């Protein structure tokens, strides 16, 4: 009697386990990438907001200087 069907089942089981490990690893990697993207978006928003606020402050300061702080 041949052990070939059992060997094929064992090989397929190992391949499935390997694919499951790869899937889990990939999901973890993608979650980390999404987290980094979210952090970058937040930092960019804060940076742009801070930049706009700085420009606004500069304009107000210039207006106050030109008008003599009236």
Short description:
The chain is mainly alpha-helical and 70 residues long. The protein has one helix at residues 4-67.
Mean pLDDT: 88
The helix content, as a percent range, equals over 70%
* Order of H and E elements: H
Q: How many beta-strand runs?
A: 0
N- to C-terminal distance: 103 Å
- Structural class computed from helices and strand pairing: mainly alpha
Describe the sheet with the most strands. Answer: none
Please provide a written account of the structure:
- With about 70 residues, the chain is mostly helical.
- About 90% of the residues lie in helices and about 0% in strands.
- The chain has one helix and no strands.
- The longest helix is centred in the middle third of the chain and has 64 residues, at about 5-65.
- It starts with a helix and ends with a helix.
- About 0% of the residues are buried.
List the helices and strands and how they pair.
Elements: H1 4-67
Task: For the structure shown, list the relevant keywords.
70 residues, mainly alpha, 91% helix
């Amino acid at each position: 009697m041949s052990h070939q069907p059992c060997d094929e089942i064992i090989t397929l089981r190992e391949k499935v386990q390997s694919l499951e490990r790869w899937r889990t690893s990939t999901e973890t990697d993608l979650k980390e990438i999404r987290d980094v993207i979210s952090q970058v978006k937040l930092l960019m928003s804060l940076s742009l907001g801070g930049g706009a606020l700085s420009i606004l402050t500069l304009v107000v300061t210039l207006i106050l200087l030109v008008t003599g702080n009236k």
